[in-house]
Amino acid sequence: MNEKPNILFLIADQFRADCLSCAGNPVIKTPNLDHLAADGVRFDCAYSPDPICVPARASMITGLYPHKCTGIKNNGGAIKNGIFKLPEFFRVQGYETYASGKLHYVPYSAPGTPRLLHGFAKASLAESGRILKEYDPQNTGRGIEDYADFLSDQGWHGFTRAHGAGNNDMTPVSSPLPAEFNVDAWVANRGIEYLEEHLSRKSAKPFLLNCGFPKPHSPYDPPPPWDHMYDPRQMPLPFSSADGDGAVRNLVAEKSSAAHGLYRFSSQAIQNIRAHYYGLISFQDAQIGRIITFLKNKGLYDNTIIVFTADHGDMLGDFNYVFKSTMYEGSCRVPFIIKSPGITAGVTKALAGLQDLSPTILSLCGLKAHADFDGMDLSPVLINKQTVRDYLISYSLDDPQQTYMVRNSRFKFIYNQVMAIEELYDMQKDMHEECNLASGKNHEQMLKEIRNTMCRWARANGDFSLFNSDNSLKVSHLDRNTFQFNEKNMGWRHY
Prior knowledge:
- The protein has two domains: 384 residues, Alkaline Phosphatase, subunit A; 106 residues, Arylsulfatase, C-terminal domain, CATH 3.30.1120.10.
- The protein is of the alpha/beta class.
- A hairpin with a 2-residue loop joins strand 10 and strand 11.
- Helix 6 runs parallel beside helix 8.
- 26% of the residues lie in helices and 15% in strands.
- The strands form two sheets. An eight-stranded mixed sheet has the order 4-3-5-1-6-7-2-8, sandwiched between helices. A four-stranded antiparallel sheet has the order 9-10-11-12, covered by helices on one side.
- It is globular.
- The protein contains twelve helices and twelve strands.
């Protein structure tokens, strides 16, 4: 590649992999992402290494699993010093580096103090009000969050939450802000402004631009007319257990759902939530379309590597669960599209993870780093349609509530440390994870092998939190060896 490619990351927050028209969703409208997918490779089996915001995003720019790059598997961990960080690396390689919107692995700084941006030379942040109280006792966001400053300057201070719904509320609402002041529109605007600034300087340097869209993360609050774009009656109903008897899968996640008041929502209410969620996605798609149109109009599109993905998905009521942090498809499977010069466009079932992003981008740019990545270079998949791994590991939460996933080309195994039994799904025959094969006696050998795969990986990667002091695997008191259930149902009950 004679000319260094530009790099554009389009990172959504809490975006389900099945909420793309090009992925087969018959209801949702995502024309711009569909066109991007047609020009690139869409990974149908891409997963978050940890379906929680901060650890997933840290993995993207370090190429490491969260327990290595932040030290924990939950929110709150800062990226460690002295390890590879993708924007920092590309800045050293001569790239102009910009960030617009949500990063969410940045420890926020007090007003007037330097920001820790991990290599982004310029950044305009929109962090959904997640600011340390001691830095902002009046909760104004002024001087800390650029989007809050923008709204104040436009006379809309405080209106981003004037509908009364918070970051983790289930209630669907309409945004009180005009569409042009919506956060995803602002992220696109700032991204385009950075590109205009870059071009105006006639810089010979390539650019790396990260556009972090805070949506469709709750609150589910699309602006008009996107708030009425979808008929709630046309929304898919949540998935449930095959026998429909209300069986409980994981009581840790069940407690989270209860805390968020999910049980007060009828099926129709969930459909209404989904209609608003879809509206947020279509609005975001339109903003992404504006960025791509700018690149095309300036002759930059063909030589720009573009990645669209998300930190995790959203359960949206599937199996009576909300939001993220579970190993079910709605939570841990993510949209993943890569468009790059020299690749073969199409759709692949090759297993991929967000931790693969850094080594893959380096490879596509013909660069090498002195770093030991956990992620794998996906360029053989992109160029030659090869596979690069036999299985993929994801996990979530810390001891004692942690859960692990082992996913191979056909099966998904889920380990739950407490309050649930282990799970096994045939993802070719049961893509909605309705029938837990681990509750029967016909898959003993497979369970043993895949469980051993998980344990070997954990030990090899320094995650010893799965094991007791005698090196045995920590086992839930609801383990399958304690309770044996009928394979025809989910097999989870309160005891």
